[in-house]
Design a protein that fits this description.
Residues 105-233 form the Transposase IS4-like domain. This is IS5 family transposase. The protein has 272 residues and is of the alpha/beta class. 42% of the residues lie in helices and 14% in strands. The chain has a domain at 103-241: 2-Layer Sandwich (Nucleotidyltransferase, domain 5), CATH 3.30.420. The chain is built from eight helices and six strands, in the order ααααββββαβαβαα. Strands 1, 2, 3, 4, 5 and 6 form a six-stranded mixed sheet that branches. Helix 2 (42-55) crosses helix 8 (248-268), helix 4 packs parallel to helix 8 and helix 5 packs parallel to helix 6 (193-201). The longest helix has 21 residues, at 248-268.
Length: 272
């Protein structure tokens, strides 16, 4: 492939070096039956995914100087299905936390949900309407640490209650961290005692943070507001402004790729 003019979303050499070992190992473990090495480099495939994440473009509108839709979609689906996208994300999360003098896994997580509209063409069977927020579409649940890094993500129809998402998030937090590392979780009043009880089964103390009745207007709540900041950061990736994915698992994968973009920039002190 001839040299092309870089996009602002492209990986720098330093950022690529952070994830290259994982994808090189993946490629070696998945050789082509025919022995073909592939026309496109793993770096260019990731560049195409990050371009789409930032711009929100459709698959068939990827620029002609990036790998074609067929190649990018193939790897995107393979990495989503075998968990490579989350592996890359989690390894970067460990590095960001350790760079801040923290252990690889947090002791406290913050849970929250966000309802977003679904794009035209998203299957109705995987969407619903958030009765409280009057938003038709899907609901994202995030568990973050106090640095705003994503520990777990769950995507459901917007009609699913926060309780169900909260319990699913706690299960995924436990699966994504060293046993016993997470001891506490903060949630807002949208979550109920069933989430508190479920957290107890994992040895996690879930605290429902209630709004001070004396507060007027918007008042950020210490620590619990961190997850809202993460939602704001994710909204800079236009692919996440709405839910464009037919499969909720793809929606979750989009969060991992967006945070991979964020964390490689943090670790290399670069920005767009």
């Amino acid at each position: 492939m001839s040299e092309r003019k870089p996009y602002a979303s492209d990986l720098s050499d330093e950022r690529w070096a952070l994830i290259e070992p994982v994808l090189t190992a993946w490629k070696a473990a998945h050789p082509s039956v025919s022995g073909h090495q592939g026309r496109y480099t793993m770096r260019e495939i990731v560049n195409a995914l990050l371009y789409q994440s930032r711009t929100g473009c459709q698959w068939n509108l990827l620029p002609h100087d990036l790998p074609p839709r067929s190649a990018v979609l193939y790897y995107y689906r393979r990495w989503r299905e075998d968990g490579t996208d989350q592996t890359i994300h989690d390894l970067l999360r460990f590095q960001v936390r350790e760079s801040k003098g923290r252990s690889a896994d947090p002791s406290l997580v913050v849970l929250d949900t966000q309802s977003v509209r679904a794009a035209a063409g998203v299957p109705a069977a995987t969407t619903g309407k958030d009765a409280a927020k009057k938003v038709p579409g899907r609901k994202r649940g995030l568990a973050t640490d106090v640095l705003g890094l994503v520990i777990a993500v769950v995507v459901t129809a917007a009609s699913v209650h926060d309780n169900a998402i909260g319990t699913a998030l706690l299960d995924r937090v436990v699966a994504a961290t060293v046993p016993g590392s997470v001891q506490s979780a903060l949630v807002d009043q949208g979550f109920k005692t069933s989430v508190v009880a479920h957290g107890a089964t994992h040895g996690i103390h879930v605290k429902i943070v209630e709004r001070n009745p004396a507060d007027q207007g918007f008042v950020p709540q210490p620590k619990r507001w961190i997850v809202e900041q993460t939602y704001g950061t994710l909204s800079l990736h236009r692919r996440l402004v709405r839910d464009y994915e037919h499969d909720p698992a793809s929606s979750e994968s989009r969060v991992f790729w967006a945070m991979t973009d964020v964390m490689t920039r943090r670790l290399t002190s670069t920005s767009t």
